[in-house]
Amino acid sequence: MTSRRNFRSLALGASFVAGLSACSGAESPRQVVATAIHLEDQLDTATIEGGAVSEGLAPELRWSFEEGSAGWLALPNHFAGGAAAGVEERDGSLAVLLTESTRAPEESGEQLFGGIYVDVSDFDLDDWSQVEVELRATGPVEWVGVGYNVRETGGDTLDEQWPTVFYGAGTDVQPADDVRVYRFPVSGEGGRIRGSIREVAILFGSQAPATVEFSSVSFLPASAVYSEAGVGVRPVASAAHEDFGPTRRTLYTHTPTRLAYDLALPDSARLDLALGAFGAATRMRVEVDDGGTVKTLLDETVAPAGPWLQRSVDLARWAGRDVTLSLVADAADASAPGVAFWASPTLSGLAEQDPADAPQPPNVIFYVIDGASAGYMSLYGYDRPTTPNLERIAAEGVVFEQAHSNATWTMPSTASFMTSLHHSVLGGLVNDTNPIPPNVKTMAEHFHDASFHTGVFTFNPNAGARSGLDRAVDVFRDFGHRGSPFDPIEAISSEILHAQYWDWREAYPGPYWVHFQTTDVHPPHHPPAPFAGRLIPATESEAIASQILGMRFPFNHTSASVHEHWQGQLASKGIDPLPFYRAMQDAHDEAMMYQDQRLGELVAELKSRGEWENTLLIIGSDHGHPAASYPRFGRGQLDPQPPAWEGALLGEFESHVPLIFIWSGHIEGGRRVDAPVSMIDVLPTVLELAGLPEALIAQGRSLVPALMGDDSWTPEPVVFDEFRIDGDGSVVGNLEVLDGRWGESLEIRSGDSATSPALGRHPAPAGGRWAAQDFADVPRLLLYDVEADPLAIRNVSAQHPEHVADARQRLWRLWEEHQLLAARFEAGEEAEMSDEQLEALRALGYSE
To answer: Where does residue 589 fall: left (phi above 0), alpha (psi -120 to 50 degrees), or beta otherwise?
Structure first.
């Protein structure tokens, strides 16, 4: 077995992956390629000629209601028994009034619902990127969105009763006394809407009577995102991909522009990139000037709104020489300027200073199975053969028996393990988003800065851009469905994501870091053939999925928990809960079998291509079962049922997840570590294995000693937390610790308003153990004996008052420590800290 010290000498050293270094003795500094350079990151070293923002870009389309309705009308309500919301012109605004008569039926959300619409002509959605709405909301308005093409009449199904044929995107609304601006994409996560657009509608919903006063509605042109600068970097999706195209981290240049980079090229140098254009046909060239001659290596005219044109440019003939590499963009027609896209322009080669037999950096695959509970995997002892392929794969690595997610749903959990910081430190859930502060470095940023090519492939937006996890990602996709958020396409996410991964791998050399987050196991379950029908008739599993979709929204705002909500929904529809939950478990297990098969195929392909020995594979999950607000089929089968408020984030169902590390020839296989660890430990571990610098601040710790069998390694308590920050500043959530026999769960909230149903609170994720009611007789600190009660459904607080008192103080101190650390990243900026604060961070081990 390799010792930890020797292992680090085998791993890639940070100096090996340094992207750039300056050459001395030149009039202007030149750059030396080591492994790879991301040219879009080197704009400050490039000479830029031209690059002015093109004139004649489309203006915004704006309707102002200062002097009337501007042609906007009340949106019809086709739901059974529903009436259209009232619309009235007011001084400087157009007001829409929601009353009980506008309520939609239970199956569609049971919200008060309304909106306005306007006729449009010659309206092409491809010309627009964002909708901007100025409004003031009075009452518990929850969301606002955009739709297209108003239905004249309703139909029999809920889809046919929805007032618009197409629904685009939307955002959450914060009730306020002043006018606020809300901006969201013209299309939803399902991709581009096709077809002629006749009407545009703005829709919104509320849980109680409310009024929305619109000041204006605007459509921002697609060109607006490129108007801030003549040269810049942003994610861009190929216009040719209707639904599933990943975005590329793209260097864009308005025409005409020349970007010139002074470089010293290494052996086997090559430039890989994809070409695209916006607005008009664009001539794009790659040129090399070696001081004597200028050689054009690539010269193409690229049509706008077309597919990415992947290209590789051979630069090997200039190995060891100083050259100027230029990216040149000109309008094909001088009267029609446009924007050139240079997607993921990566210069790679072999560094001369490294010996021929120098160890290569590992390719890193971080494979997250969304919602995979270890308890339902045969790898972890489940009595159904759900993961035979994973068992074979895991035999080549190390399995952690007691791994835990640090939260119970995707957004807070993924943000935590991608940064090694807890949810409360990152700022919590704000307006249903979880933005990672800009000065917190993500796993992708660590690897991108070390000259790795980076990719993220997921069907779950909560694991992507909504948290800022698209930063420093060269190829990125975080959506899956075509229109309906519950399309069965979600159930075969691994098939689609793997195919896109291999397309990316064909185009770019290593080293690379990739994050998969599949939704095959995510409910509602639609396992494909031949897995559908193995445990339950396919028609029955589809019926269960349909029942779930018919009951999922809204949350009952008087429920004590998500599980109680589902119990009430099943009872109201006369559905026997036990057969329902058993059938849901069967469908879940079939979905797990499908995911397992796809994972086995991915590993087999890596081996057949000769990449396995140089691949570090980490397999984990963001939480246990079920996902977020779906039925708790494990808890639902318990007899007797525990009280609705009983439970904790640290329960077996909620947070026991798989965690496996495999790296052939570097990590000895066939070992299982029976000690508590958590997903927040992944980042420090992967950085050490890859030989990259440690994170400046991390709350997790490296598991390399455990992987290497170091007997001196000892486990530490596992910390869990989920928090929500509401519009009025209320904080509600839980901070929990699992330490040996004991599980301690502390509810933290700022006043009773944090759980007021009148403010629209509901038992949603990141809202604490309960979020709709204030249980005066339930202690804020719940204590669980997890050895006797691993599900955390029978608290023993009354039997251990001294332990409870001590735990309450310890967890409150931990909360204060988290807030101290959070101040470092407050408001997404580096906060000034006093000497006392810095010393406290050092004492806690968070700072040097």
So the answer is: alpha
The answer to whether the bond into 256 is cis (omega within 30° of 0) is yes
pLDDT score at 238: 65
- Which residue is listed with tokens 């919200």? 111
Tell me if the pTM is above 0.90: no
Phi, psi of 718 (to 5 degrees): -100, 135
Domain ranges of the chain: 28-44+227-350, 61-224, 363-827
Burial class (CB in 10 A: 0-12, 13-18, 19+), 195: exposed
pLDDT of residue 628: 60
Bond preceding residue 626 cis, omega within 30 of 0: yes
Residue with tokens 């492939």: 457
pLDDT at 761: 36
Backbone dihedral angles phi then psi of residue 167, each to the nearest 5 degrees: -120, 130
Q: Please give the distance of CA 297 from its chain centroid, rounded to a whole number.
A: 38
Nearest residue to 274 (alpha-carbon basis) of 348, 340, 323:
340
The C-alpha torsion from 138 through 204 and 566 to 587, rounded to 10°, is: -160
d(CA 487, CA 506): 29
CA-to-CA distance for 187 and 165, rounded, in angstroms? 13
| Cβ contact 314:320 at 8 Å | no
Residues 670-682 as b/e (b if ≥16 CB within 10 A, e otherwise) read ebebeebbbbbbb
Domain 28-44+227-350 has CATH 2.60.120.260: yes
Ramachandran quadrant class, 760 (left: phi over 0; alpha: psi -120 to 50; beta: rest): left
Other CB atoms within a 10 A radius of the CB of residue 269 amount to 24
Q: Which CATH superfamily includes the segment(s) 363-827?
A: Alkaline Phosphatase, subunit A (3.40.720.10)
- The reply to whether domains 28-44+227-350 and 363-827 share a CATH topology is no
pLDDT of residue 668: 96
Fold of 61-224: Jelly Rolls (2.60.120)
CA dihedral 144, 149, 150, 154 (to 10 degrees): -110
How far apart (Å, rounded) are the C-alpha atoms in residues 734 and 562? 16
How open is the CA angle 474-476-478, to the nearest 5 degrees? 165
Find residue 403's DSSP bridge partners: 657, 677
Q: Are 491 and 532 in contact (CB under 8 A)?
A: no
pLDDT recorded at residue 430: 76
Instruction: Return the pLDDT at 173.
Output: 83
To the nearest 10°, the Cα dihedral for 257, 262, 264, 269? Answer: -10
Token couple for 569:
């929904």
Please name the residue that has the structure tokens 């093109």.
54
Q: Mean pLDDT for each consecutive 10-residue tract of the chain (848 residues)?
A: 23 28 37 67 94 76 93 89 90 93 64 90 84 90 90 80 86 81 76 78 88 94 82 78 66 96 91 91 97 95 88 94 96 90 90 52 95 97 98 98 95 96 90 82 95 91 85 83 48 90 87 94 87 91 76 53 80 90 94 97 97 97 81 90 87 96 96 97 97 94 96 95 76 91 88 43 40 50 95 94 95 93 67 41 38
* Biggest distance spanned by C-alpha atoms of the chain: 86
Task: Give the pLDDT confidence score for residue 413 in this predicted structure.
Answer: 95
Q: Give the span between the Cα atoms of 302 and 250, in whole angstroms.
A: 15
Quote the CA–CA distance of 313 and 344 in Å, as a whole number: 13
Q: Which of helix, strand or coil describes residue 110? A: coil
Q: What are phi and psi of 824, to 5 degrees?
A: -65, -25
**Residue 703: both structure tokens together:** 């598991």
Note whether 113 and 170 are within 8 A (CB): no
Number of H helices, E strands in the chain: 15, 37
Cis, peptide link before residue 511, omega less than 30° from 0? yes
